[in-house]
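Re-running the complex after MR caught last week's input typo. The corrected sequence lines follow. Everything else is unchanged.
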Amino acid sequence: MSTRDRHDDPAVEEALQYAEELGWRVDVRHNGHVWGRIFCPLASRSGCQMSVGSTPKNAGNEAKRIRRFVDNCTC
Amino acid sequence: MTEFSFGLVVSGADFSDDEVINRLVDAGLDDVSFAVRDGGHVAYFDREGPDFFSVLREAVADVEAAMPDARVCGLDAPDFMTASGVAESSGRTRQNVHQHIHGKRGAGFPPPVLWADGDRPLWLRSDVSVWSRALAESGQASDTELHWPGVASGVFHLARASCGFDAGRFAPAMTFLIDRYMALGHLDEDGRRDLSRQLRDLADKVDRAGVGQIQPPGLYANS
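Corrected-run output:
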């Protein structure tokens, strides 16, 4: 179990854990609207990354976008 | 209203920079995920609207208004499907889908929204869903030629979802699902026996090898 901060929204947190299970890194930033970022297992400059909002308008959709992005990564 | 999922590829903006994202969210783009993928900077939307291109136009305008120096220069469109994709997702044969496309099984199949490679038509997922629902409601669903890869793939995913990855629990779950599936399908006795046998073989194989070792049968479609 990772020791990082959990996201306030359960659906988003679940999506983040899904990403971690697949080898993604969750970088918690608490930088304004940017809660953090996820990085794909190819941890180089050419790898995929996506922002995770602190208070997204629709958390369910935010979670869906995280999962879809992780699933579509072919790195 | 329909929900559409898509990504806008943006030039002139760096989505790996938190400050850029903070400015965009402050400008009202709080329903967007910002990503870097294959060197492209992509803003991912899930938005509702009357049709895809209205939603797309509005999203492009929102992004460009929020970033005066940036331009939308590309599209990530996971909602576009090929004819094969339509066949796979609806459990039809490719031939059946082609007959629908060319009106040989009645009118109502939606027109493509894009041609790729000059001759490869693509459909919008939501258009296909509307067509599929209408067909089911009009009682013509039985024109779906249930075929082994489509049915087996559906049962496989259902069973896997319903019983997790525990060895030994797959075959009973599969047997239950086969019976339910068979009750819904309009199969004759031969088809019923044939499908039943193949699905039970698959369930046995899964219980012996573990579900992670077996490919969903849909992948063998048309082989």
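None of the earlier attempt is carried over here. The first helix of chain B runs from residue 18 to 26. Confidence is low (pLDDT under 50) at residues 218-223 of chain B.
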